[in-house]
Each structure stands twice: as structure tokens, then as C-alpha cells.
Design brief:
The protein has one domain: P-loop containing nucleotide triphosphate hydrolases (Rossmann fold). It has nine helices and twelve strands.
Amino acid sequence: MTIEARDVDWSAAGRLIVDGVGCRVETGRLLGVIGPNGSGKSSLLRCLAGLRTPDDGVVLVQGEAIGTLRRREVARRLAFLDQEADGELELTVREVVLLGRTPHKRLFERDDARDRAIVAEALAATDLAEFGERAWPTLSGGERQRARIARALAQQPSILLLDEPTNHLDLAHQLQVLRLVRGLGLATVAALHDLNLAAMFCDELLVLCGGRAVAAGPAAEVLTRQLVEDVYGVACAIVPHPRTGRPVVTLDEPIGP
């Protein structure tokens, strides 16, 4: 399964938010989308998910324009985890994760043993096996984030789109979630703020700045001192990790007066 953006433009209130961006991700590959706040990361992911219609360009899912697919078919192929909270749902964690099975069920079809088994696996994978009967409002921000990821896993997609999946997570769960995502073998696109997590887990990086793609490729090629200074306005040093050889970014201070 592949997902591809070809020269995608998207505007809001007369302002170009995503400007001619292209990318392609195949099964088993993880693309990290990085860039400062307001660079267009979330908007690009929502275009990839079919939640926003590009003004120009096209998003393709396995070679088919996403706008030509029925919403249920998109939901069967693709799961999207955005940054927005789910509010104070009057549901248990298990019930929230079961919502991920909706695209695979007919109207009014009841949950069966297979659905419950898939949900149990998703809860276990996100370290929430003991949380199934907990009420959603009682969860911390990090627990809710893991439950939302579990819901995406329960959807059993071929393509996974994640907008800041490590938000609210402590260090151990940041690593756990990204290792899990990396090991799923899906075509995955993740918007990330942490450059070192992006370098550690992603096959390739796409750097956005002002809505445009300014660099793309393996982390070792993309993450240079000059790029970090130009895109983020922060001085840094970059050294190879002693075990993996992947780049490690040590930030210094903002550049400027």
C-alpha cells in the first residue's frame, strides 16, 4: 500500500498553507514530517487523510485519487490520529478503542469476538491492558494519547497518519509508541517536533518551512547544522549517535539579536 502527494497546494483565508508539497511512502516505511510551528505539517497530514481537498495537486492511495474513494473505503485503508482532544466522552477506554472497528462493520452490526480480540491486542500494545474499564474522563493526557493510538491500531489500517503522536507522553512511552509504530510495517507518515526522535525512528524526513518542502531524504543527509539554523533559527551541534550512527542534535540558543 502506498500514499503519495503530488504538488499539493492548500489555502485558508487567502493564505497558502501547503505550497506544492510532494511525498511518497510505501509499505514498511516511516516518513517523518518536521518543521517549526505554522510550517504546514498538520495541514499536509489532513490533506493526506482526505479531510482537506487540495486547491491544486492530488493525493493518491495505492494509485487512486483519495477524493474518488468512498469515506468508508478510505477509513478501511487509512487511520489518522490528529492533535485534537476527544473531549469528555462518557465511554470506557475499551469502548473508545472499539470505535476503531466501525469502518469494518455494517450499520447496527454488533461487536463480535474478533473485534474484542483486536481491541485487546491494541490495548496491550499501547500498555493499556489494565485500563479497558476505566472511564475516559479519568485518564491523564498521556493515557488518552495512548488510547487514541490504540483506537487507530484497532482500525487495522494499511496506512497510518500521525500528527504529533508523542504529545503528552513521558520519555518511556514516547519511545514505546514510536517503536510500536516503526514495527507495524505500515506506510506511515508522522509529524514530529522532536528532531532526535525523528532521526532515531524515521526512514526519511520531509522538512517544511513556510508551507514548502525545503529538504527531504534520510536523516543523516537532511539534519545539518545549517538546515536547523535556517529553518528553526537555533544554533546547534550535530554528532552521530555512538551506537546507531544516526544524527543527534544538541541545541544551543536562538540565533539573532
